[in-house]
Each structure stands twice: as structure tokens, then as C-alpha cells.
Amino acid sequence: MPTNFSAGPVRVRVPATSANLGPGFDALGLALGLYDDLAAEVAPGGVRVTVTGQGAGELPDDDRHLVVRAMRAAFDVLGGQPAGLIVECVNRIPQARGLGSSSAAIVAGVLLARALVADGERRLDASAVLRLAAEIEGHPDNVAPCLLGGFTLAWSEPTGARAVSLAVADGVRPTVFVPSERGLTTTARAALPATVPHGDAALTAGRAALLVHALTADPSLLLPATVDRLHQAYRAPGMPGTSALVNALRAAGVAAVVSGAGPTVLALTEPPPSFPVGTDWQIWQLPIDVSGARVARGRLGHAERDPVAAGRKS
What we know:
Elements: E1 10-19, E2 28-43, E3 46-53, H1 66-78, E4 84-91, H2 101-115, H3 120-123, H4 126-137, H5 143-148, E5 151-157, E6 160-166, E7 175-179, H6 185-190, H7 198-216, H8 222-225, H9 232-235, H10 240-251, E8 256-258, E9 265-267, E10 281-285, E11 294-297
């Protein structure tokens, strides 16, 4: 069936995310109230990408841009490629910091492409969007909360990724500590050993199960629930500042973990007001996003084009 493209622009808002949350390696994720806003429309030819905010002047402005690559993958599934594309990105999620910037770009691209096809939702339903986004990203732990919002549990089956979203209990107060330096997921994954001791695996599995209860019913258990022995210690030598801050926060009774592959630190309970943090860190209190990615018709408005990080407190 030929692809019929919708006339006019479409826009999407996608949240930042934090994956792993300590023991939930490659499975658990949380959507945070820090957003990228993007818009796209079909053009007679060529590809033009403009970027404002995070990554401006660094990210490619053509088919190499991750949003466009995700759109292309979705258009292939949807039955055909448009002659050209115009894409506008207002980025507030820091790049390569462990807050899901790549997943946000992928989810945005897939959803923009679907919205630009007249019967896109019929051809690519919500489950298929998750599967495709996870396939592009390589794992579902960030794309799931970006799509669904809230606290998500994601897993993979032979048919692809699946996920569920759960409501977060009152008392969970995310704070992110964002450093100036960047990190790469590929580098962080390369630090992980091929095997871990059985005792470490068993302990981490138990804490991951406890974390689901702590986040959804009893935040008083977040400190013991965020103990991990699968990945954080192995990655610590590559980001000593992150490791030191996590350890200091935990010693002060704060449920702190490495956000995704780092180097950002996520605290799920509020740090003491007088907790000492160096000047190398930006500290943002972020709400939990409960809606996930949102699509609408039309161009970005004046407020959506503001590159300042909406929703955060510093």
C-alpha cells in the first residue's frame, strides 16, 4: 500500500529518563520532567535539521542526525520515504550524560514519522513503536519510560521489547547531579565483566525486586533497595567523581545511584540542604514525568522553542 504523508508539521515532546536505578540493570527506568521539543514536516526534497540548546553546533544537520535516522527506520516500516524532511529540535536533555538523550531522539523520530503518515497509528501501533525504538537503541530501559512515562519495567522477548509503566509513590523526589564531562554508553558497557559472582547476582536480583516495591509503595526502603553489585563498581574507575558522589550521598542516607551509564548521579530521596557538592556539578530537582512522549499537530510555539530546561529547579 502506498504511503500517504500528512500535510503540515507535527511536533513531539519527549522526557529525559534515568535507567537502571541501581540494581535494575537494563530493565528499570524512570521518566523525568526535563524535555526535548521537536517538530517535523515533509519537504519537496533534501533534509534540513536545526538544533537549539543542548548539542547546538555539534550535532549533524542532515541524514546523520539520530532523529532523522530513527524517522527513516520508521518510514521503512510504514511503507515509504518522503522526498525530504525539515526537522527542528529544541534540546534541553544534556547529551551523553546518562539522562536518555539518545533514547529521546529515537522515540521522537519514530513518533514524528508515524504522525506524518496519514494512517501511521494503524500501521505502527504503540507496541510496535516500543519494539522499533528498542531495536534502534539496542535495549529498552530508556525508550520505555520515554514512551510511557512514570516508572517502567522493560524486558525483551523473541518478538521484541515489551514494557509496563507503574505509578510512583509519593515521597520519591528525584534530584540529578549533572557533571560537565560526558560519558559514552559503549565505553561504560565495555567496562563490565562477562560474568559476575553468583552471590552478587542473587543480591542484586533481590534488591531490584525490593526497588519495585520501594518506588511504588514504600519509599522509606529506597536506600537498601538501590544497592547494586552488577555494574556500578565496575564502571567506577572510568568516572571516579561520579562514584565518589554516589558513595558520599549514600553515606549521608540518600538513595543515590549512577544514572544510566553515567556520569550523572540520580538521587531518589532529597539530599540534606547542607550536603557539600563541588562546583563541577549542576543540581536539578526534577518532577517525575507521568505522561511520556506526547504528539500534537502544528509547529513549535514560542515557549517550546525556549532552550532553557523547563520543569527543573537548580
